[in-house]
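Appendix B. Worked example

We walk through a single record from start to finish. Start with the input: the chain for Pseudaminic acid cytidylyltransferase, Alteromonas portus, length 231.
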Amino acid sequence: MNVAIIPARGGSKRILRKNLRSFCNKPIIAWSIEAALNSAQFDKVIVSTDDDEIAQFAIEKGADVPFVRPAELSDDHAITRDVVNHALTWLAENEQPAEYCCVLYATAPFVTSNDLASAFAQLKSSKRDFCFAATSFPFPIQRAFYFTPQGDIEMFDKKQMKTRSQDLQEAYHDAGQFYWGKADAFLQNLPMYSQHASAFLMPRYRVQDIDTEEDWETAELLFSAIQSRGL
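Next comes the structure step. The output line below is what the pipeline stores for this chain.
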């Protein structure tokens, strides 16, 4: 059985009621539920939540909410892997064990059904345990700097000060969108950023972490532009 797990707790702090807030004319979680359902990759699309309103909306959209997420996995310190493993364990004990699982964030409106299907195909062909969404940094990370307590500027890697940008190795980061994997690999807590995983590369214009009001505004502008151009 293939299962999508969408974590969506009710108590978001930086953006209140974030998972149900309207994003381009529909609650943001709706985009993730629709992408999962339309991908035809899943036997179940489960929303893991502690919130009655989120649960009701998810069910109306066609997702399953077979349990209430425990309070100890619903606070600000909850770890995604623990939330996922709780859902996988519940399925194994109460319904049917999953073979493959995709963790899809509720605030990932840029993820398409095709992304999910293509990443699953990549996971199977790679013969690895995980496949997660990633993208490239827009600027060489070797040129990054920081401010000292005195307000001075210091480079993280001074050796690269005079290296040409085109001679620096390109760097990538987790896109924070979705994570495909074997259910057993999740439950065994195998490390994601390791030889166990492959990276499904997404274009930077479809990657936006949404944690602040500025993030939200940026994401809506990008999303609207993408839809208007049919990308």
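Two observations about the output. The two ends are 31 Å apart (CA to CA). DSSP finds six helices and ten strands in the chain.
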